[in-house]
Please model this.
Amino acid sequence: MKAIHIVGGGLAGCEAAWQIAARGVGVVLHEMRPERMTAAHKTEGLAELVCSNSFRSDDREHNAVGLLHEEMRRLGSLIMGTADAHQVPAGGALAVDRDGFSAAITAAIGEHPLITVQRGEIAGLPPAEWDSVILATGPLTSPALAEAIGALTGEDALAFFDAIAPIVHRDSIDMSVAWFQSRYDKAGPGGSGVDYVNCPLTREEYEAFIDALLAGEKIAFHEWEATPYFDGCLPIEVMAERGRETLRHGPMKPFGLTNPHPGTHKPYAVVQLRQDNRLGTLFNIVGFQTKLKHGEQTRIFRTIPGLEKAEFARLGGLHRNTFLNAPKLVDATLRLKAMPRLRFAGQITGCEGYVESAAIGLLAGRFAAAEALGETLAPPPPTTAHGALLNHITGGHVETIDAGPRSYQPMNVNFGLFPPSTSALPLSEDGKRLRGPAKALAKKRGLCRRALDDLGQWASGAPRLAAE
Model:
């Protein structure tokens, strides 16, 4: 049996290698460092954490990333097992000693009898004789490999900068203030004429919003990601700096919209939100890519009428990040449709975060190992954190009339990616329906319990079918 090749020794690549080797299949893991360093990495260690040392919340009952932690533990994750062993105090979050974590991963991979680590850059597409390859090269994919992937899949296959607008949970929008309507009631491809949520601002509210944008703290570009802005994805605060009326004649224009709520007047400006996933649980704020710090985004965007209690599935940003138009290019098991011997894993697929990248590496490794063993492994159910994240990557985005993804941007795991639960919520101790925060917590607990139950059935082997 030929070895499976993995390009990239980050969290996704190491997790994929571990999962493959655990199933008795050989692995060659290629890492270009230290022969070729990146602008962000400082060491030659595998699974180096280049930014924060936090894996975020470890709450498996009420938090989507905490749930993903628990799922990974139950699936025998190297990344999670090592993180647990190198944990440092961080309240309810899981944070690690970054040096100890990387050293332990490097040792575990290097000592495994079925894994060979080869140092050196894979400049261009992997050799044709490599029958099964996982590309887990992350957001800093080498230029030669990125160019080769782009040539294989089309010029628009790779994005090199995120232009990320914040995404809001639909059920946190106050629809007594906001309303559904498309500008000039146009239906458009796949639309109905009431496709956007509209949040109205008076002149005073608009002026206060502009003041807050201009005064808000911003994140500076890293030296390695600096680039001139282009007009298609200007941060909203940069637009505001070009003139106080710029946003009102751009993404916040009020034209072609009529507030249907009684006693209201024509808005001076309008913030629009557009459906972001097929489930209709997530809406992105149109044109609101930003370099504001996350705390500032939450504070400022909650001054928008209708978003005072907004819960954010993702906050905005603009930064260097190589990622695929995955819904268009990969299949349900992360294989490249144009060249199925290639799989993708980690952040290059369009997931965000250490844990999410490792989780997709885990799935890519299991899919590749099953294929090498002559088996077929079904994707995990979309009710699990792994399945919800995979579904986002491989086709959970809103589609246009020609069946192509309308927009695709990187995403952390969040409950907005999960199918809503159909189970009734429990009653309060006095027999009444839960409301407010208690209801929200109960919904999250229900989603987490359903996920772990469904993960158990998937991991038990029932979805694995013998090859025909």
Residues 425 and 442 are 7 Å apart (CA to CA). The longest helix spans residues 436-459. The radius of gyration is 23 Å.
